[in-house]
Amino acid sequence: MRVSKRESAADNVSDEGSEKTVKDDAIHLKRQIGLLPSISFIIGTVVGSGIFIAPKGVLKNTGSVGLSLVVWTLCGVLSTFGALCYAELGTTFRKSGGHYTYLLETLGPLPAFLRLWTEFIFIRPAVATYVSLAFGQYVVEPLFMPCSAPPVLVKLVSMLAITFVVAVNCWSVSMAARTQVLLTVIKMFALILIIVPGIMALVNGKTENFQNAFDSESLSLTKIPLAFYSGLYAYGGWFYLNFITEEVINPNRTIPLAIIFSMVTVIVFYVLVNVAYYTMMTANELLMSDAVAVTFANRALQGVAPAIPVLVALSCLGALNGGFFGTPRMFFVGAREGHFPAIFSMIHIRKQTPLPAVLFLYPLVIVMMARGEIFQLINFASFSRWLFIALATLGMIIHRYRFPDLPRPFKVPLAVPVIFTIVCFFIVGLSLYSDPWNTGGSCALTLSGVPVYYLTIKKSYIPERWKNAFNKLSMHLQILLEVAQQEVKTY
Hints:
The protein is mostly helical. About 70% of the residues lie in helices and about 0% in strands. The protein has helices at about 5-10, 15-20, 35-45, 50-60, 65-90, 100-105, 110-145, 150-170, 175-205, 225-235, 250-280, 285-290, 290-300, 305-335, 355-370, 375-400, 415-435, 435-445, 450-460, 465-480, and strands at about 345-350, 485. It has a two-stranded antiparallel sheet. α3 packs across α9 (about 175-205), α10 packs across α16 and α16 (about 375-400) runs antiparallel to α17.
């Protein structure tokens, strides 16, 4: 990595101070994400397609209205526990990269590489495919109601959404941040539009769908983890701000404040939205709907019902934008640490965006979109995602024990990471029994990274001519994409 002359003089200065000592034209990821964009980044990534699609998955696996609302609340509390743990990790380790960085710093390079491997192979492509398909479904389905939308058209529209998001994130960091703020405002308006008529109907006595709310003939202990997966997916995204720590202004203050405010807001909105759904629809009607928000709008918002699919689609677009903003920083940091090809640690010399890392994901998402049932994608990606989140918080506990005197600007009570880690491991373990096909496949793909690590990273057995060919390709890509290594240490 090339280092500027100013960097050595600023090694002992804080991140913010060292940032001010360099010229604006130096190639690096600048600190330009303040508190409002940080809050918008978290809320805008959390509130995506999940709240509009996951209620079906939660209800399907709980079997009752009452238990589904309990699961939604518990998922919110559990996600908040995890978010608080990541607030501590994000203020303790000032690098970007999220899960990867924390595993690297606490448990070592192999778990960190496996997290990077699974994110590349299937987690990010699966999650992006899920969200983009939801976008396409909400855009196309209203045009064909009451008939089903053509799957090919849904996928084409979904691909256009991904292409737009990739283009924005390649073009400008500030544009991507402003886009996220705008889309967050729109999606919160969409949730309010659902909550208000539902709660008004409930207050006016429409409570029949809540009678015998906990009666269930299909409740099974083995299905509960899958219900939690759907709920936790809807809350997923609280960790994305940690992917961009090096670009956050005053992270010691901004990260904890943004996380706490965002999670409280999301929990309140999610529970109220589900109450509104059940007020206007029976459990069977919700299970039969492929687009819950559209069905709700046709019942409760007939005057503005055509606007709901558009608002939901924009909400999905915001989640896509947040994912493509944050995840490439994990690949960027992984490449900087030598776990990925160096080309992915480079930045566009004028746009100051991690262009190769953003483009890296695009073809994988397009390929995965060609097939895959939407709820299977959740279960497939969730196993590895939550396994590594549990490992990261376990690593935090171990790191506390090993380095008790290390400065931790934000520190949560020990009970929080302990409870969160135990629950995550329990859900992950039980899911192997509940859905052995998807979770077993996810586990196998995760472990496939072990030989890759030992053959290519730990001890390189790659033939020399392959290395030379790859280096030549990387050089041509660097020239074509106009990218270079960052010149400023940003952590």
